[in-house]
Amino acid sequence: MPHREQPLRVPDPVLSRSRRSAFKRVVRSLFVIALVTSVIAGGAIVYAFTQFTAKGPLVAGTIYQVKQGSKRAIGAQLQDAGIVSSAAIFTAAAQVKGAFGNRLKAGEYEFPANASIDQVLSMIISGNVKTYKVTIPEGWTTQMAVARVAENEVLTGDVTAMPVEGAIMPETYVFRRGLTRQKMLDDMQAAQAKMLDDLWSRRSVSDMVKTKEQAVTLASIVEKETAIPEERPLIASVFHNRLKQGMRLQSDPTIIYGLVGGKGKLDRGLTKDDVASDTAYNTYKINGLPPGPIANPGRASLEAVLNPPDTGYLYFVADGSGGHAFAKTLEEHNANVAKWRAIESTLPALPTTVASTAPVEGGLPVPPTPPPTPVVVENPAAPAPPAEVAVAVPADPPAAAETSSTSAIITPVPKPTKLAAAAALEPGTWLMVANQLVPIPKQKPRQ
Asked: How would CATH label the architecture of 62-126?
C-alpha cells in the first residue's frame, strides 16, 4: 500500500510586539478621552443644574413684560433685564422642556426676588402672568363705574360706548395688562345680562314686574334703600305690595337720582322743594316705577325683587339700630315712627332732612350735609294709601298714571276717608324735637 504524505500545515501569523502595543495605546487613549469627556460633560451638567436652580440676581420683586419671541430671544431679554444670570442656560432648559410641548407665553410677570432660572421658566411656561382687579360696588351708578374704569392706569384705550344705567354687574373683575377699557365695560355688561337671564328664568312673580328692565329698575331702588342683606327681601315686598294696591313707591333715592342723575350723590339732605320736584324719577309724584334704573343692583337685590316674600308690609322706617322697622298698617307705622323719633331725640344734633336716614352711595350710608334753610310744611298733599287704610289728614289721590313703556303699571286709588280728629302724630306736619325741626312722616315706604 502506497504511503500518503500528510499536507503541510501553514503556521499562524505571528503579530509583532510593536503592533500589539499600538492597538492597546489606541484603545487606552479612546477610553481616556471618553472618560475625560464624560467627566467634563457631567461637570457641565452639574454646573448647569446648579445655576438652573440657584438663586437669581433679582434683589427685589420685579414686574417685567416678556415680549413675544424665540427661546433664545426671551432668554436674552431676561438676562439683559437682570432677571436670570445666564441666557444660555435658560435657552437650553427651554429647549429641553419645549420638546415635551411646553411653550413660552409672552405677558407681564411679577418675578419674586432671587427667582431661579427654574422658577422664571416655569412661570413663563405656565402663563402665570400678573393680574389686576377693579371693583364696582353694588348700588353704584353707571357714571361712577365708568369713571373708575377710565381712571385705571393698567387698562388701555378709551371708552367708546357708554353703558346704560343698570346694565353693569357690580363685582370685582380680574384682568391682565393690555385689556382695553371698552372691553372691560363690555364684559361687565355681559356678566349682568347673564346673571339677569339666570334669575329671570327662576322668578316667582310676574304681575308687578313684567319685564327684565322693570326688574332691574325696582332692584336698583331696593339696592339704594338698605345696606343690610337680610332687609332686601322685606323692602322688595313693601314695594311689591304698594304697587299692587296702587300706592306710590315714595322712595327718597329716586328723588336724588332725579336731581343729580348718574352722579349718584346729592351732597346734602333732601328738602321740601326736592320732594316736590317734577322729575321723571320722583316716585313721590309719579305712579309706578320710574322710567329706568337709578343704579346698578347686585344679585341679592335682583333675587329679592323677582322672589319677594309674602309679608303684607306697606311701610318701613329706621329703627335706630341701622336697620328698619316694618309695618302693615299706618297705625303700626306711626308707632314705629314715634319710637324712632324718641331714639333720634337722644342722638347728637344732625342737619334736618326730609329722609329719616342719610342718602346712600354705593349701598353704604353717607353722612348728610346741612340743607338750605329748613322749611316748615303744614299738611302737604300726600299720596293716597289703599282705600281700607285710614289716614290722619285729608289728602288728594294721585293723578292718573301717564302711559309709558316703563312705568304706568298701577292705577289711581279712591280718595281716603277723612277722620273726625287728627292723630297725635299727624302725617305731613313738622314738630320741634330736641331743638330741631323734624317731619312727621307721610305715608311712604321710607321716612
From this structure: 2-Layer Sandwich (3.30)
